[in-house]
Amino acid sequence: MPNHFHDLGGALEWRARGETVRVEPWGPDSVRVRATPGGPLLDGLPGALLERPPAEAVVKIEGATATLVNGALTVRIDGNALDATDPQLHPAAGRITFLRTADGGELLAEEPHHFWWPGPRLYTATGNGHHRLEQRFRAYPGERLYGLGQHTHGMLDQKGAVLDLVQRNGEVTIPFLLSDRGYGLLWNNPAIGRVELAETGTRWVADSARQLDYWVTAGAPAEVLRRYADATGHAPVLPEWATGFWQCKLRYRTQAELLEVAREYRRRGLPLSVIVSDFFHWTHLGDWRFDPAEWPDPAAMNAELEELGIKLMVSVWPSVSPLSENYHELLNEGLLINTEYGPVAHADWPDKGLDAYSAQVAFYDATNPDARSFVWDRIRRNYHELGIKVFWLDACEPELKPGYPANLRYHAGPGLEVGNLYPRENARMIHEGLTAAGESEIVTLNRSSWAGAQRYGAALWSGDIGTDFASLRTQIKAGLNVAVSGIPWWTTDIGGFHGGDPDDPAYREVLIRWFQYGTFCPLLRLHGFRGPEQKLEPAMTGLPNEVWSYGEEAYGILAEHLRLRERLRPYLMRQMETAAEQGLPPMRPLFVEFPDDPAAWRVDDAFLLGPDLLVAPVTEAGARERDVRLPAGADWTDAWTGERHRGGRTVRADAPLERIPLFLRDGADLPVRG
Question: Where would I find the Glycoside hydrolase family 31 N-terminal domain in this sequence (predicted)?
Answer without folding.
Answer: 21-192
